[in-house]
Write a structure and sequence with these properties.
ATP hydrolysis activity, alpha/beta, ATPase_AAA-3, 15 helices, AAA+_ATPase, 2 domains, Rossmann fold, single chain, ATP binding, Helicase, Ruva Protein, domain 3, 11 strands, MoxR family ATPase, 342 residues, two-stranded antiparallel sheet
Length: 342
Amino acid sequence: MTSEPNLLDESTAEQIANELKTLRNEITNVIFGQEKLIDLVMVAMLARGHLLLEGLPGLGKTELVKAFSKALQIKTNRVQFTPDLLPGDITGNPMLQEIDGSRKFIFEQGPVFTNLLLADEINRASPKTQSALLEAMQEKRVTVMGETHSLPSPFFVFATQNPIELEGTYPLPEAQLDRFLFKLEVTHSDVDTLERIITNRPLGEEPTVNAVLDGPRLSELSAMSQRVFLPDVVGRYIARLVHATSPGNSKAAEGLRYGASPRAAIGLAAASRAKALLEGRAHASCDDVQAIAQPILGHRIIVSYQARMRGQSSAEVVASLLEEVPLEEQALPQSLTAAKIS
C-alpha cells in the first residue's frame, strides 16, 4: 500500500477527519438529533454524489441542505418544484435580445448553474420537468437548443421529495433515481430532540450557521477521498453484492424485477472510500460497504408487483442480500479445483 505514491497515508487521513469533524459539529449545532443522517450527507459530498431526501413536510429536510450550504460557503439555488414548472425554468432559456442593432438569442442561465441545487419537493413536478436534471446530474452540463453549457464545480443536486402516497406526487423515473448516490429517509424526532427544538428554535427565526469550509477546499477533500485505498477483497465484495441484486443471481433477488446498475457499484466504491476518510482511515473495508449499502441500493432495485403485494420492501431485500452474500469469496472445494486444473 505504501509503495503507491497516490494513496493517502494514515496521518493525512486523520488530519482530514479532524477537519471534517469541525463541519459535522457545526451542522449538529443547528440540526438536532440527526447525527447519522448528517454523516451520510457528508459521505455523499465527499464522494461527489447527489442526494435524495424523503420524508413528510416539516421534518427539516430543507433546513439540513441550507445548513450545509452556509457551512460550506458554496453558491446555492433553490427551486420549488410544482406541477406547472417547465424544464426551462431549471436549465435556463435562450432570450431574444437586441445587440448592436440586431436581435440575437442569448442563453440566460437557469438556477441549475450553481454549486448546490436544492430541488425542493422534486416529485411534485411532471416527469418532463424532472428529466431536465438528467444531463446535469450525470455529465455536469446542460444542453439547450444544441448548445452545451458546463456547470460550476463542485456541483450537487440535493432533492427533497414527499412520500409517493401523498396526493399530487409523481414517482421519479428509474433513470433519475439511479443518478442519486443516496436516498435517505428523514424520520420524526424523538421527545428529547423535539424539546430541544422547541427551546432553541423560535418560530420564523433562521438558525445561525458559521462558515467552516469553502467550495475549493471541499473539492480538495473530495479528491483526497479518491486516494483512499480500496483493497481487492473490498472491490470484489462490492461486485458480488451488486451482481446478486439481479433476479436469478441470489435467493434474496427472487422478488425483484430489476437489479442495481453498474453505477451502483461505482457509487458503493466511492462512498466506501469517503466513509473511511470521514472516520480517519486511509483504507476502505467491507464494513464500510455494509454500512452504506442500504441507502445506495434500496432505491435502485425494483421490487415486483407480486412481491410488493406480499409486503416485501426493497429495504428487506437489501438486508437479505447483506446476509446472503459472504464477505469473502468462497473458494472451490479442493476436488473441484483439481478437476478444473486437469
